[in-house]
Automatic annotation (TrEMBL):
Protein name: PLP-dependent transferase
Keywords assigned: Aminotransferase, Pyridoxal phosphate, Transferase
Domain Aminotransferase class I/classII large: start-end pairs: 104-447
Family as reported in the entry's similarity comment: Belongs to the class-I pyridoxal-phosphate-dependent aminotransferase family.
Coiled coil: none
UniProt record, GO biological process: aromatic amino acid family catabolic process; lysine biosynthetic process via aminoadipic acid; tyrosine biosynthetic process
InterPro entries in alphabetical order: Aminotransferase_I/II_large (IPR004839), Class-I_PLP-dep_aminotransf (IPR050859), PyrdxlP-dep_Trfase (IPR015424), PyrdxlP-dep_Trfase_major (IPR015421)
The keyword Transferase appears for this protein: yes
Pfam family, one: Aminotran_1_2
A GO term, aspect molecular function: pyridoxal phosphate binding
Natural source organism: Hanseniaspora valbyensis NRRL Y-1626
Signal peptide interval: none
Amino acid sequence: MFAKDFSHLYSDECNRRNQDKLSALFAYAQRKDVTFLGNGLPESKYFPWQSVSGTCPTPPFANGIDSCDKSTDTFSFQTMKNDNSNSKLGTCGDSSFNLARGLQYQAIEGQPAVLDFIREHLKIIHKVGTHYQDWDAILSIGNCQAFDAIIRTFCNVGDFILAEEYSFSATVNAAKAQGIKPVSLKMDDHGIIPEYLIELLDNWPADLKKPKLLYTIPTGQNPLSYSLSTERKKIIYEVLQKHDILIVEDEPYYFLQTGEYVSKNERKEVKFNNHQEFVDSLATSFLSLDNDGRVLRMESYSKVLAPGIRLGFIAGSSAILKKISAYHLMSIMAPSGFSQTFLNELLNSWKQTGYLDWLIGLRHEYTLKRDGALDCLLELIPKELIENDVVRVSPPAAGMFFTVELNAKKHSKFNGDKNAVEDYINEKFIEEGVIVAPGSWFAVGNPEEIKDIISSEDDGYIFYRMTFAASELPIIQEGIAKIANVIKFEFK
Ligand SMILES: Cc1ncc(COP(=O)(O)O)c(C=O)c1O
């Protein structure tokens, strides 16, 4: 089976992107049988870095990944500019590449050694290749950049896309700034409500073009921290298939699947006896359900390694990825060679099993933080405020965030005016010395054209997004105590 052809959905910009004849010459740069006078590749002898080196912890991180700063169980690497290469432009070995190659122009999709690791990883986690065979992965500079490249490849000014009604503001704003019109999808405690999506698309006005793609954050959704179930994903996939709409899954939190929150006295530590048990515990992705090549999966190393590495990847149909690479060629060219060198040394030393050990360790850390934050929150918010529909807390099962929902109608001032209550309570949080993100900052809104298609009830709740990622648990608990103080005072 091969991926379907989605070329009818490409943007005008994508269709205007000319095949770059010059970059095609890169393929000859390493060949010994030709004299290469093609591209302006500077000789690596003029690169001032003779080597780079680093020290990293060694799997299986038996004492937990939080102790890796103090760990003596480490390995060191040194990547030389020139190893035994006889090419001044650098060579690319099976599992590593030298700096002369890493810092050179060429691999627009990413260095082969890094991509090979990612492809293998995708087979292990998402069983790619089982539904359609012409899949691939290319590197990105993280999910924000990946999304920018994807929407430029598919959307024209005035095109619609679908998004969760509250979503990550940077990506949604990038779309809006390009003149693209995001349409909100209603959510409940389990993410996008499929029936809402069905009704919206079945009633889509005949004189408007259908949305090009769904932008979703399926795991540990930002800001609401919900995770979409497999059942919902299957329904959503089928609905979008019917309406010829692509799916872009933005998954920076995929490996922060902390599992259902269990109250303190019933809690048991989750242990994985082997890597397969961990892999089996992970959510079924849209990518792994995809028979058509309509899913583009964006993953990032920001939350699993470090945001500053600015590396991620896009996985999906290779025909689509070629179009995205064509945009990369005329914009970012390729992610930084230094970043790729460091990622390559780390991952190819850890190997797939070591990387899974790291991810298991990370899951453990975030579970402790999630549990510590939620225990504290549920202890400090008076039970009667929850029972009387004043406060709602939905413990997350993935991601870095949790929310506190407040019923604006139950506040003594502002007559249930949600914006006024949200601003007022936020000011009180700040006065108390705690910084959170008000929910309305993440509201996607709806374009004028579709405002009348579906009406939905407003339950009068506002919410604030908080994270347990940014500090040590005692600090987070200090912040939660301040939140609880304000809520108790304001809704007494
Ligand atoms: C949903 C979502 N997408 C993308 C990003 C940014 O990812 P990256 O650092 O890979 O650009 C974030 C977080 O900051 C996020 O929450």
